[in-house]
Every structure is written in structure tokens, then in C-alpha cells.
Design a protein that fits this description.
Blueprint lengths: L2 H9 L28 E3 L5 E5 L2 E8 L3 E2 L2 E3 L2 H7 L4 E3 L3 E5 L4 H14 L8 H4 L2 H14 L11 H15 L2 E2 L4 H12 L7 E5 L3 H9 L6 H13 L1 H13 L2 H6 L6 H9 L2 H6 L4 H19 L2 E7 H5 L4 H7 L3 E3 L2
Parallel strand pairs: 1-5, 3-10, 6-10, 7-9
Antiparallel strand pairs: 2-3, 2-11, 4-8
Helix pairs in contact: 1-12, 3-8, 5-9, 6-9, 9-12
Length: about 325
């Protein structure tokens, strides 16, 4: 049973043998950053190097969404992994509920009920009138006549709308980096080092029952998702283009604010999440990743890792924390 994990994954939206000799870089067809979404083969961003003596941690910053119709030229990442002593997987939270396959099937109806507002309420019942009017406009544009979504909690309705808007904008939420990293890691004969915080749920049915009858504080998540769709789609395209063509300076310059903090808080601030131990999940995951990075730098000549670009570039993010600990940082 993974309902809380599914909710967290939804927000996280909070949340990788020597390759054949590649062709020279100047033979790679690149496109200039434009107002439209880039296509074709693109290099992606360079790698950050974190050094301690002759030990190096290579970090690839990831981003979502990305252009839908482009091909990532991943040879640099594959070349690093081909030499790596260790590959650190992205940090993630998970839920452990000791239930078997058939019991998970019996829980499925309860899991589906969690998506809807308690007591049969609709979006119009729980969302302020002005915000609901904006919702109807965006719903008509990106979802069409979908009556069932009106029963959803704001946090789930917002997620469905956001995904539909992304698809209509020439972007994709598909994970481009993960499959490449996993394949290269397997070819190297390594098992990724997990950075995971796992919470045990002793009574999954009771947790579902409590969650299905609990009103989440998710109106801010709903409002910020609408706002991002209304105002930020062009910026998302520019950021996606910048990642694809390897323009890190543009990624630094463009605002990286998004709705995920508010949506994550709607889950982690609930009484159930507090009792389960998800209240400070992001901070614990970041601390766990930093500790793992330090261990890997101590013991390995070469380590590879991926992290969300937002965590890499923000003030007091991973790079700032590693720099404060005395590590040498080399920008791509």
C-alpha cells in the first residue's frame, strides 16, 4: 500500500562499460534557444565537479518538464559512470506497509476514494468563487468536459490540470535522465546507492480511512498551480530549452518558483503525515543526501549523482553546503 508515497511522488513532482567513441562535439546538430520548444539532438547541461584532493563527485542537475521532442545526448554522463566507483540515486521518501498483493487489491477502492473530497463535496464547494472561475477557464482549455474531476480534492484536480497543460505546451514530464543513468550503472556493474527515508505504516487501512475523511489544507497548492499555468508556461518552456541546450546561465537567471512547496505542505502538514514522520521530509532527505555525498567523496575516486536543478542552484542548496564544508566546486 503506497497511498502516502503516491501523494508525495505526485508533489515531488518532494521529488541515473565504456561507451562507444562519440562523434566530435561540433558534429552534433544543436538549435539556438528560441520561443518554441527545441527538438532534435541536444547536449543537456554540463556536470558540476565537487573535489576533495583527487576524489571527484560529478553531479548532473535534472529538470522537469523538458521538451517533448528532443533527444538528450548523454555520452558525457555515460562516460563518467563508466569510470565511477559509485552512483548515488536521487533522494526519495517511501512508505513501507507490510501488506501482500491481494490485500493491496482490497485496499484499492479506499485508495481511489482518497482522491475525492470528503463527504461528497465538489471543487465548487471547497474553492473560493473567484478561484473556481479561473479553474473553469483553464479546465475548458486543457481538460475539456471532464465532470469527474469536479469531485477531486483541489490538490489532485490541480495535478491533473497541470499535467494536461504541460502536454499541450510541447513539454513532457517524462523522466529522460533516469533510464539512461540506470542502464549505464548496470553496465558498469554497480548497484545505485539509495538515499531514502522510509516510514513504516502499521495500519494502512486505518491511515486510508483517516485520510479519506480529512480535509487537506490544499487551497494554496490549488491557487499556485492555477497561477503557474496562467503565468509561467512560457518560462517553463524557456527553462526546458535551456536545460536541453546546456545553457546553465539562463537556468540561473529564470525564476524557478513553482507550486510544489505548497502542494507538498498540503500533505506533510496534515495530522496523519505528522504522526507518520513526513513533516520535515524534504529537510531530512537533503541532509541524508549531503551526508552520503561526503561519505562517497571520502572513499571513491569517482562518484556520480543526480539532483534536481532547483536544489543545486538555490541559495543554501547542495552546492552552497558542500562549498561551506570546504569542498572545491567547479562549475560546468
Amino acid at each position: 500500500m503506497r497511498i502516502v508515497a503516491a501523494l508525495l511522488a505526485l508533489m515531488a513532482g518532494l521529488a541515473h562499460a565504456q561507451a562507444p567513441a562519440p562523434s566530435p562535439p561540433d558534429e552534433v546538430p544543436l538549435r539556438e534557444l528560441d520561443t518554441v520548444v527545441v527538438t532534435g539532438v541536444q547536449p543537456g547541461p554540463g556536470l558540476w565537479k565537487v573535489r576533495k584532493g583527487d576524489h571527484t563527485l560529478w553531479i548532473l542537475g535534472t529538470l522537469s518538464p523538458l521538451p517533448r521532442d528532443f533527444e538528450w545526448l548523454s555520452r558525457d554522463v555515460e562516460a563518467v559512470i563508466a569510470q565511477a566507483d559509485e552512483v548515488i540515486a536521487p533522494p526519495r521518501g517511501s512508505v513501507d506497509a507490510d501488506v501482500g498483493f491481494f490485500r493491496r487489491l482490497t485496499l484499492l477502492p479506499s485508495m481511489l476514494k482518497v482522491r475525492n473530497n470528503p463527504h461528497g463535496a465538489t471543487l465548487q464547494d471547497v474553492v473560493p468563487p473567484a478561484t473556481y472561475g479561473r479553474w473553469l477557464t483553464l479546465k475548458a482549455r486543457y481538460l475539456g468536459r471532464d465532470g469527474g474531476i469536479e469531485k477531486r480534492r483541489p490538490i489532485f484536480a490541480a495535478s491533473e490540470l497541470y499535467e494536461a497543460a504541460i502536454r499541450r505546451t510541447g513539454l513532457s514530464l517524462e523522466d529522460v535522465v533516469g533510464p539512461v543513468v540506470r542502464r549505464a550503472t548496470k553496465q558498469r556493474g554497480l548497484k545505485p546507492t539509495e538515499v531514502r527515508i522510509e516510514v513504516k505504516v502499521e495500519d494502512p487501512r486505518g491511515a486510508l480511512r483517516e485520510l479519506s475523511g480529512t480535509r487537506l489544507n490544499d487551497l494554496e497548492c490549488f491557487e499556485k498551480t492555477l497561477q503557474r499555468i496562467e503565468r509561467d508556461l512560457d518560462t517553463m518552456r524557456e527553462r526546458a530549452n535551456a536545460w536541453a541546450v546546456g545553457d546553465v546561465e539562463t537556468l540561473r537567471a529564470l525564476p524557478a518558483t513553482n507550486q510544489y512547496e505548497a502542494c507538498m505542505a498540503a500533505i506533510t502538514d496534515s495530522g496523519l503525515a505528522q504522526r507518520l514522520g513526513f513533516a520535515d521530509l524534504r529537510q531530512r532527505l537533503e541532509a541524508a543526501w549531503l551526508a552520503q555525498a561526503q561519505r562517497s567523496l571520502e572513499r571513491n575516486a569517482v562518484t556520480f549523482a543526480t539532483l534536481p536543478m532547483s536544489y543545486l542552484l538555490r541559495a543554501d542548496g547542495a552546492l552552497d553546503r558542500l562549498r561551506a564544508l570546504g569542498y572545491e566546486i567547479e562549475e560546468p
